[in-house]
Amino acid sequence: MMMYTTARTAFRTLRRNPMRAMLTTLGIVIGVGAVIAMMEIGAGASGALKKTIASMGANVLVIRPGTASSGGVSFGAGTTTTLTPEDCQAILRECPAVRNAAPMVRARTQVVYGNRNWVPNAIYGTTPAYLDVQDWSILAEGEPFNDRDVLNGNRVCILGQSLVRELFDGESAVGKEIRIKNIAFRVVGVLSPKGANMMGFDQDDVILAPWTTIKYRVTGASASTANQSASVASDSVNTLSNLYPTAQRSLYPERSAVQQANNPMPVRFANIDQIMLAANSSAEIPLAIEQISGVLRERHRIRADAPDDFNLRDMAELTRTLSTTTKLMTNLLLAVAMISLVVGGVGIMNIMLVSVTERTREIGLRMAVGARGRDILRQFLVEAVVLCLTGGAMGIVLGHGGSLLVRFLLKWPVETSPAAIATAVLVSAGVGIIFGFYPAWKASRLDPIEALRYE
Amino acid sequence: MELITLRGIEKTYQMGDIAVPVLKGISLAIRQGELVALTGSSGSGKSTLMNILGCLDRPSAGEYWLEGQEVSQLSADERALLRNRKLGFVFQSFNLLARTSAIENVAMPLSYGAEHLSEREARERAAEMLSRVGLADRLDHHPAQLSGGQQQRVAIARALINRPPVLFADEPTGNLDSKTSEEVLQMFERLHTEDHITIIMVTHDPKVAGHANRVIRMDDGVIQGDAPPAAESKPKTTAGAP
């Protein structure tokens, strides 16, 4: 009740001089407004930053086949041949936490254009999904190859920037033909520059092509098995066999359709070297790992007590960087916000001090009619808090409006932050108490006689 | 009945190393219902005496009994409560709160020590006080919209809101012209005769002092004369104030 009366008196006093009250509270309005706008824009920026770091591969998971071993001798990771493109499709179909997945086969061999040659770091056979997984969809030039190219095993490729530099000397590469292991590939696109990865590996020194083309035409490592399955699958229209110039000649005469039917040979699926996947977000990585393991174990018919025949790895280092950066960003914003609030608070203190001096006679009068020191203290403190809270409320509106404006005008990402608003209210009340205390204390210590005589 | 009794009141101000005695042993008794004028040239100590009587200041030595209570040694908070309950103040420059309506000005002392009153009761009481000083039609006027005499009457209403037994007036007509001065002084006389409020006025104006029924004349920290105004009028002209 007493507090209510005091608050009402404070409101009335402030209304007596609305212009000054407005100007006084402007510091807090701007302070809180800055905090809110900063928090919201900052939250958006930190989200964008998260996305950028995610584009470095923080959401990426890699599945590689497990290790093969014979008689206690292990052959190292990736030596079994159990991973298939169908695994990749099954994961994409059955794991909701996975955004996209790309099967990959690798090759490393010489690339020739005209009188120049180069051995790129990696020649990846993959699908267009790879570009999405790596967040690399925006090409510097040309178009990516499409799913039809993958199905047909078309001889098309996308070059990394380093290759354009080495082979084309800066000329446009799109539409030209390069030869990989004596097979002509038409360049359909050029990747945007990405630079080195965290290991210092030049990520631009790469060629992307449909995995079917690389698998069956370039590496040829499993060409014979591919041929077998191909000849099984295509018994009437055998157009594929002459497409494989490097295919090993079959040692056995080709079998007729009747022979095939009488004595079918087991079909072996093409195996791939790895699958690259992107989770929906870095937070969903553990979930994605769980879902993928389930799908793969089921597809590979692994018993509950048997170990996985694949390796699933995430980019723990990048994820850690991500969380550290986000935390850093938040703390930075908080520090800036605190500074602006302190500045606003000093403004309040300044004007409250002026106000105390200016209203010395009023203070004297109030004391003469029976106000105790603590009544005066309370009055001025409440006035400061009312000022700060009013300013805080206006600052919230201003800051929120400002961040909305930024969103509409500059198209920056902005996130509304209820926590920031709650903090701003608490902090502005706190600023009122802290910076209002000294002037209020000064007012309460005035001598009524002196104060009444003050001119 | 003795409302106020002073015994050997002294007040000494310390100016660095030099002690400046302002009141040099004042003994005084004021009874309930008196209208007293406290006069004297400037520097005579009448304002200091007034501050001590008004419990705004404490004497360096001596006893001050107010309604049978020794108040000279009370703490600041206790004196604030005492001022709120038992003393009313009217100032030369009115000291009304600017940009605040008359009724709110009058109700202001109620917010200290009368928190039990509701907003409505406080307003009713303030309105009643304002109508007593003849300003019932000016409740929501701001000081700037009131004449000097009206402002001083608002101040009187404010001083009386807690129904104190004693009213102090420090040069109440100092800022008013002779006509409005007369109005205010008649108001004091009416309060004195009708409501039996003890009024103590500080003034150096012989005309104002003439309205009192007792004039106490101060000079250099001691009481020089204490008599009804008729007897006082002759030595005052010789003194040649102001």
Q: Work out the helicity level of chain B.
A: 25-40%
CA distance, first residue to last residue of chain A:
34 Å
Structural class computed from helices and strand pairing of chain A: alpha+beta
Q: Report the strand count of chain A.
A: 14
What is the typical, i.e. mean, pLDDT of chain A? 81
Largest sheet of chain A: 12 strands, mixed
Low-confidence stretches of chain B: 232-242
* Poorly predicted regions of chain A: 221-244
What is the assigned CATH homologous superfamily of one domain in chain B? P-loop containing nucleotide triphosphate hydrolases
Notable characteristics:
heterodimer, A: 455 residues, 2 domains, 12-stranded mixed sheet, B: 242 residues, alpha/beta, Rossmann fold, 6-stranded mixed sheet, 4-stranded antiparallel sheet, 10 strands, 28% strand, disordered C terminus
Description of the molecule:
The complex is a heterodimer of chains A (455) and B (242). Chain A is of the alpha+beta class. Chain A folds into 2 domains: 2-53 and 322-453, no CATH class; 81-250 and 266-308, no CATH class. In chain A, 55% of the residues lie in helices and 15% in strands. Chain A has helices spanning 2-16, 18-58, 85-94, 129-133, 147-152, 161-168, 211-219, 223-233, 257-262, 285-299, 316-358, 360-368, 373-410, 418-444, 448-453; strands spanning 60-65, 69-70, 73-74, 98-107, 111-113, 116-118, 122-126, 139-142, 156-159, 177-180, 183-191, 206-210, 274-279, 310-314. In chain A, helix 2 crosses helix 13 and helix 3 packs across helix 10 (285-299). The radius of gyration of chain A is 36 Å and the shape is elongated. Chain B is of the alpha/beta class. The two termini of chain B are 34 Å apart. Chain B is built from 8 helices and 10 strands. The longest helix of chain B has 18 residues, at 178-195. In chain B, the strands form 2 sheets. A 6-stranded mixed sheet of chain B has the order 6-7-8-3-9-10. In chain B, strands 2-1-4-5 form a 4-stranded antiparallel sheet, with helices on one face. The A-B interface holds A 1-2, 5-6, 9, 12, 16-17, 361-362, 364-375, 448-449, 452 and B 51, 54, 56-57, 76-77, 80-81, 83-85, 89, 91, 95, 97-100, 104, 108-109, 111-113, 115, 119, 158-159, 162.
